[in-house]
Design goal:
Aldehyde Dehydrogenase, Chain A, domain 1; six-stranded mixed β-sheet; Aldehyde Dehydrogenase, Chain A, domain 2; alpha/beta; binds nicotinamide-adenine-dinucleotide; seven-stranded mixed β-sheet
Length: 492
């Protein structure tokens, strides 16, 4: 056990507005449960339109000064925030395990990925520069200047409650905008903790704000004329709807959606290595990841060997509470989601997939949470629901294919395009994969295709609605507009 005493006190969550913790006006809310124990961790209130309006107003006022604060001044609170995140790394990870369920190691990795974005945003003085050209025309010098734009919001999902807010927040404020986070109501405590550190880091009042809430809160934000732009990460149907609503209301918008990711395993690869990476990529964070590789497309010559190797991986998995050292797969976020995953698994069986490993009857001693052991399906075909739809659970389906053409067709057979990975020692196949696989994050001999913070996070097809992605350079583009400045100084 990492920290048995890590159980949170009951939290009454509050918004963080204009540099202060404030009670929420809205009457609705919901209980946040520890998915491993079923214990209540607190209550998250849902902000109503009065809460949202007051927050946007404060953020607009803060923007007036913040946009023209010297850039060196703007990054100082981010440096302090980075140090505080390092100092509280373990406590944040424990909080994350308690409300989300992933393992402590996974939570530590998630927070690290978030910190990396703060680090990259500290480079804004260089990254925010635009181009210039002297003598662009006779007696004319011309330059492009980036301007901050106003108040931005980000609406984030439950599955990375520590990292995903940091895909946006550091870049928004470093570029001179003010920012409002609406975290997932299913896992809001990590965001609350992040804002305790934000408070300590000393951003000017109103520059960084937190509003808790649900659907109505999001819609008020998207329709508010004081909001310049919105970032969204979540499921595809909601992403599509957010994209439309924000665009209809004249806002910049980027909306990242759900996924169905494939690993391709060719005959010329190290099968043990591929099995270990693919199984981990499918089942880490209980499969609740937009980068989960939950379908392995396997060339027939190595299908049996690969199937045996992944089943071995599944047998070695330990399902349990994420704060227990030996746990490799934690619980699912809610009992309702667990039931949904079980239903899709049942559909897979009814559609004729072969169950090679069945973890559905898992029993976790001492805990009564939303536990589900890993399930490995064999003989999956492209038309099956388990091959087409996002499951978001610890499931891996194996699709046998006769050649590489069929493998690429299978990768491209769904409406999603978030990630795909190839396991091979063939440079020729890797080159084809790079050009033909329709996904925004591609890997070769890599399990989880997660870009570092200094690259954008890709996504195509129904996995992404918009033009500019999260992280790095794309965020600078999203949070600024470039004005052109043309000078002519004729000779006297
Ligand atoms: P979700 O779509 O249910 O919720 C995401 C956010 O949207 C939450 O803050 C929620 O309050 C809000 N929301 C939910 N329904 C809404 C509605 N009808 N109108 C307005 N707002 C609404 O997603 P989730 O279950 O929290 O997260 C899991 C999903 O996120 C998966 O599909 C996963 O693939 C996806 N995801 C994608 C990426 C990516 O980079 N593409 C990253 C992480 C997660």
């Amino acid at each position: 056990m990492v920290a048995p005493e890590a159980q949170s006190q009951q939290e009454e969550l509050r918004n963080y507005v204009d540099g202060e913790w404030v009670d929420v006006n809205g009457d609705d809310g919901q209980t946040v449960l520890n998915p491993a124990t079923g214990d209540s961790l607190g209550t998250v209130p849902f902000s109503d339109s009065d809460d949202v309006n007051a927050t946007v107003e404060r953020a607009q006022e803060a923007f007036e000064d913040w946009q023209s604060a010297p850039v060196e001044q703007r990054i100082q609170p981010l440096f302090r925030f980075k140090t505080l995140l390092e100092d509280h790394h373990e406590e944040l990870a424990e909080q994350l395990v308690e409300e989300h369920g992933k393992t402590f190691g996974e939570a530590m990795g998630e927070i690290r990925r978030g910190i990396e974005n703060v680090e990259v945003a500290c480079g804004i003085p260089s990254m925010m520069q635009a181009g210039n050209l002297n003598h662009a025309a006779p007696q004319i010098d011309e330059s492009a200047n980036r301007e901050s734009l106003g108040v931005f919001t980000a609406i984030t999902p439950f599955n990375f409650p520590g990292m995903i807010p940091l895909w946006f927040l550091p870049y928004a404020v470093a570029t001179g905008n003010s920012f409002i986070l609406k975290p997932s109501e299913q896992a809001p405590l990590t965001a609350q903790y992040l804002f305790e550190l934000i408070d300590e880091a000393g951003f000017p009042d109103g520059v960084v704000n937190l509003v808790h809430g649900s659907v109505a809160t999001v819609n008020t934000l998207l329709e508010h004329p004081g909001i310049t732009g919105a970032s969204f990460v979540g499921s595809t149907p909601v992403a599509e709807q957010i994209y439309e609503t924000a665009a209809e209301n004249g806002k910049r918008v980027q909306a990242q959606g759900g996924a169905k990711n494939h690993a391709v395993v060719t005959e010329s690869t190290d099968i043990e290595y591929a099995a270990e990476k693919v199984f981990s990529a499918a089942c880490a964070c209980s499969g609740e990841r937009c980068l989960a590789l939950d379908i392995a497309v396997v060339e027939e010559g190595v299908y049996d060997e690969f199937a045996e190797a992944v089943v071995e991986q599944a047998k070695n998995a330990t399902v349990g509470y994420g704060l227990d050292d030996e746990t490799t797969i934690g619980p699912l976020i809610t009992a309702e989601h667990e039931q949904n995953v079980r239903n899709v698994m049942q559909t897979g069986i009814e559609e004729g997939a072969e169950v090679l490993h069945d973890g559905r009857d898992v029993d976790v001693d001492g805990y009564d949470g939303n536990f589900l052991g890993p399930v490995v399906f064999g003989d999956v075909t492209t038309d099956m629901v388990i091959q087409q739809e996002e499951i978001f659970g610890p499931v891996l389906g194996l699709v046998p294919v006769s050649d590489f053409d069929e493998a690429i067709e299978t990768v491209n057979s769904t409406r999603f395009g978030n990630a795909a990975s190839l396991f091979t020692d063939s440079g020729h196949k890797a080159n084809r994969f790079k050009h033909e696989a329709e996904a925004g994050n591609l890997g070769v001999n890599v399990g989880t295709v997660a870009p570092m913070a200094f690259f954008h996070f890709g996504g195509r097809k129904a996995s992404f609605f918009g033009d500019l992605h999260a992280q790095a350079e794309d965020m600078i583009e999203f949070y600024t507009d470039k004005t052109i400045y043309i000078e002519r100084w004729p000779d006297q």
